[in-house]
Amino acid sequence: MATLRLIIILTLSFTATVISVTGHNITEILNEFPSYTSFNNYLTQTKLNDEINRRETITVLVFNDTVVSEYLSGLDISVVKNALSVHVLLDYFDLPKLQTIGGGSVMTTTLFQTTGEAENGAGFVNITDLVAGKVGFGSGGSGSKLNALFSRSVKQIPYNISVIEITSPIIAPGVLNRSQPLDVNISSLLEKSGCKTFAKLISDTGVLQIYETTEPRGLTVFAPSDAAFNAASLPDFKNLSNNDLISLLLYHALPVYVPKGSLLTVKNPIGTLATNQVQKFDLTVRTNGDSVTLDSGVDNSHVESTLLDKVPLSIFKIDHVLIPAGFFPHSPESAPVKSPESSPPAPVVPITAPVSTPVQVPVHGPVAASPAPVARNSPVKSPPVSSPTTSSPVAGPAPADSPDADTGNNDNNNSSGGVKASVMFLALVTVAVSGMISSVFG
Q1: Cα angle vertex 388, ends 384, 389, to 5°?
Q2: Sheet harboring 313-318: ordered strands across?
Q3: Has this prediction a pTM greater than 0.70?
Q4: Pick from 61, 120, 241, 417: most CB atoms within 10 A?
Q5: Per-residue pLDDT tens for 80-121?
Q6: β partners of residue 287
Q7: CA angle at 172 for the pair 171 and 173, rounded to the nearest 5°
């Protein structure tokens, strides 16, 4: 009997531990509160939601839609991402913890600090206990003021995530001044980063123009290093038709902005620019901690480094050329590439469909000329009221039920939609324990 009781206690303790470390979903949490709709949409649009969801201990400082409109209206989306990153603290703060500051101050790290762009203390937030029980928040930058005050406690899952409303945004020095539209020379960046072969291929085939046309609506590029093209197992590209080579290069890009934080949360295969009516060329993402591996179905390629992460463009350096399943050996009708003397280079494939529609790469026949590149990165004046329609490999879950917000009491804010898997586990454990008890007392 004593042994059975010990087994039951240990089992339930283990189950409680599993539930306590289950992840959170910031999109679901904020969906419960209509006053944060714009803030929530910006988190999704910038992919900060994925970065927040993958971290285990975090605090999100939010402000209502009226403040969002005043603070972020007219700013470029890359600036919006940096500004909101300042409001994501890499530590857990709830009302009781804020009240223990006791007339002092604490300096805490923000998500903006991890980008490598923070200067002069802009990547830190100063939290100070003010007179009359008020708590102030300000940038850690020199000379910054405590311009934001604690307003209310929104949601807590101790000690995983805390969402707190503040009265106004934290103004970090220099962050809002970086409002220039993104202007990146992709080819030059690749050449300087050890991807000269890939840069030459996308330039010679016209794929670079496809990348540039896609970029304003979202683009992710996986660029193989020069060493990757020297692999003994790599097929001879000279035996590829021009259209097949274009398809292979398009396979190294996604028609959507996916930073590394989002890659680390991908669960399903993701479509590439090479997907067409004949072939569905997808990639499967596998992760191990902060390591990301791309599985093409033929081989794997490790993401070595991030060359660029600026909404709406991310570029990664990988260590192997990606070959889609079924691409080699290709269909018999694929002809070798003709010499420049006998055949002019084919023009590029147009991209006129929205981001969510796969780019169609023809298998036969000439390729239509590409339209002029789209103007890049128009300023984001206000987010859509509903969730963004841009296709993403990590779709946000459906909104949760809408309980009332907490006004400072954290006792009823310890649940989230992220515990579904653990609830199933708990049910299985309960059945098992019930069977054990029945076998002993039945």
Answers
A1: 120
A2: 253-254, 219-224, 313-318, 300-310, 291-295, 282-288, 270-271
A3: no
A4: 61
A5: 999 999 999 999 999 999 988 877 899 999 999 999 888 889
A6: 292
A7: 115
